[in-house]
Design goal:
nine-stranded mixed sheet, alpha/beta, 9 helices, 291 residues, homodimer, Rossmann fold, 9 strands
Chain lengths: 291, 291
């Protein structure tokens, strides 16, 4: 067993660590400058040679989730260990007593939508874009044995939206992009209209930088794309609207492998079924690890 | 997708079903005659040809668990689907408002210890031996496509104790037996002394039929045995005492592969690391499925 998690000073605290599949599954907390709150994330680091730097997959979770859901139910460790992939799962919003919230499951805590809020009372802490795009990568790069030239990003539902929009806004940063049941166009669904309207205000032009389809329409491109979507997903027609992305990719020539999976729903039973395909797909694009 | 879960009458109710790895992960409830309460269990049934009957693995959970822990965190479905194994996970005790309980985590609800209680106030509902040994197998045989001539049993911690003792008391029923971090001799540890004393009374002779080491000392044998035990398990020295089983198997010539795993703890991060080894081990002994 090799554990090379160096914690410099007290910037981030290792809350727990469990040996699993020969690697270490850790949970870390740290004080975030972006959100002004403590933030928690999990990191799986496969066994590796001392000094090696491994490719990293960022996994963004969906509504109501924290880092814990995919960490417990995602079934990613076996293949990450085999392929030599570090797997990072952040939280979905700021947390804590002083953080504004909403009674609904789809707004407020657990529903940060990976945006930088501009509206009161959200803008003080709901700065999840800056946190995921800038602060967390810097922190992880400084503390874990990641090769930041080999990054992939994925996510589920609201986190699929996050993965697609972050990749589209940061061309060249991610060699591989995939998503499970993503919200492909928040501008065009009730979850998205509520969240973007609440966090960003009524000016819908400001929403387009947080909408994968709008970003593609406005000229952004991905290197390639893998999407899995269950056909028995209760949210497919009303919220996810995969066909909008499929049609747009065809129209503009964006390479994409968007797979509709008969009988599968929106749950981790679906995600864990196809996570191996996604991890292999990322690993192929991220190149061999140094293990 | 083929789902062949036939529910005759209203004997058992399908609470949920999710397609996963091509098979169905279901949760069922039914009124138990043994416990006098509703009981819940989960069942994963791989995709299979109509009319086929598949080998079945019984997984007994540990203290504080319900059917849900292994169902969510066990990472067994991928390989069960591939090997054609049905995987059944029962609850660890009777539940409900009218069921006697104790404030401790290691006695009462969630801690049935797979015994038939003889003492008040436990004996009315805490009849987990009869439930797991007789009632649940009959129910499952009548409703799911299991081949009852090809049964394997395993479990974790208290459930490892359950798996070993049930297999030892029922020679010939299980072609394959394994355990993760089992309590190998409840007679010789605080968890076991509390539970067996509480459920069965002070006469320690009555405890021996619920103690794997005592059963082996008294002449019972297993066809073979696979055990994995983490060396960083906090409960190893005080409660699990794996060495008692290792030494006894050597002494009496009981075939056993008892593996000490450096760095691993008592959690599902450990179980999920080695579940593939156990499933392959069972599948080899249960023979080819009819898929």
């Amino acid at each position: 067993m090799r554990v090379h998690v160096r914690l410099k000073g007290s910037i981030m605290e290792q809350v727990s660590v469990n040996l699993s599949h020969g690697g270490t599954q850790s949970v870390f907390t740290h004080q975030s400058e972006a959100t002004g709150t403590p933030m928690t994330f999990s990191a799986f680091v496969p066994a590796h040679e001392r000094g090696a730097r491994l490719p990293v997959i960022w996994y963004l979770s969906g509504l109501t989730c924290s880092h814990a859901n995919v960490t417990e139910k995602g079934e990613f460790r076996r293949l990450c260990a085999q392929l030599g992939l570090i797997f990072i799962a952040p939280d979905t919003s700021p947390r804590g007593d002083g953080v504004a919230d909403d009674d609904a499951y789809d707004f407020g805590k657990g529903a940060g939508f990976y945006v930088d809020a501009t509206q009161e009372p959200w803008r003080r802490h709901y700065q999840m874009r800056r946190y995921i795009e800038n602060e967390l990568p810097d922190l992880v790069a400084g503390h874990l044995p990641v090769d930041m030239d080999r990054q992939g990003i994925t996510g589920h539902s609201m986190g699929g939206h996050g993965a697609l929009t972050i990749a589209l806004r940061n061309p060249g940063r991610f060699r591989s992009v995939s998503a499970f049941s993503p919200i492909v166009s928040p501008i065009h669904c009730p979850w998205g209209e509520k969240a973007l309207g609440g966090y960003l205000g009524a000016d819908r032009d400001a929403w387009r930088t947080y909408d994968a389809c709008a970003l593609i329409e406005d000229g952004a491109r991905l290197p390639d794309l893998l999407v899995d979507q269950g056909e028995a997903d209760n949210f497919l027609e009303s919220q996810l609207k995969t066909h909008l992305l499929t049609e747009l990719c065809e129209k503009v020539g964006q390479p994409a492998n968007i797979r509709m999976q008969p009988g599968y729903d929106h749950s981790y039973y679906f995600i864990s079924t196809f996570v191996d395909d996604h991890l292999r797909w990322h690993a192929e694009r991220l190149g061999k690890s140094a293990r």
